[in-house]
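hey so i finaly got around to running the thing on NAD(P)-dependent oxidoreductase from Hymenobacter profundi. pasting the sequence first so u can double check i didnt mess up the copy paste, my clipboard has been acting weird all day
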Amino acid sequence: MNAQPQLGWIGLGNMGNPMSSRLLEAGYPVAVYNRSKDKEKALRTAGATTADSPAALVQQADVVFLMVSDDQAVRDLFTGPDGLLQAQASGKLLINMSTISPGISEEMARLSQQKGHTYLDAPVSGSVKQAETGQLVIMVGGEEPAFQRAQPLFEHLGKLALHLGPTGSGNRAKLAINTLLGFYTQGLAETFLFAQQHGLKLEDMQTIIANGAMGNVFSKIKGEAIMAENYQAAFALKHLAKDLRLAKAEGLNTPLGEVVHDTFQQAEPTLGEEDVIAIMKHLQRD
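ok and heres what it spat out for the 3d tokens, dont ask me to read them lol
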């Protein structure tokens, strides 16, 4: 029986924490690195070890997962003074689950290959609850053998992992699905706003949506958030605004795409730290 691979995890935010916890619970040895050290405490308690830098982490791990905020954070973690690619190591599988541009993945894949590593882009669809329960959808770009190597690990993190093509394919799929998320979010907010402006009870509107063809988990959760005026971030508005910028940079120029992009850019300065459905507050101000 083969020994369990040593795993590394970089980025212990709302998603990275429960995802790395699931790998620990599955019996894998996990080492973690996070710039904010206080976020490592819960994982240490659960049995993880820690590393002082990405370079130190990749030296001890066979597979390294990353889930960080943006292109610059990825570049720093790979090419910074103590970055992944500065270590005297080779043959590692680097799985970047961040929502970033396809271009940065293509660049990091080339640099990783030069160091003897293999790179996958593997962003996810789902939020904190799906991360906690292993129900994420994982969209993967990169070489097929690397995907097959990672598949047993993906099975602990998601209900579905799809290999979509070469490097960057996972990132492009994530930008596409988050564009749809933008449509849903603004559409739901505008529906509630229209109903509210015409004297309808939001509770009744929620019931109508839930019992019709447009009902889904997202409309249930976010409709309830609107009614409760609960805008605490499960997925912060600033992140969707960033994803829509990335999609636009990749060529998003459809009528709905343009509108949703512009709406979220306008809302980000004041509502960026709140949940995406806080777009309702932005629309109410207009």
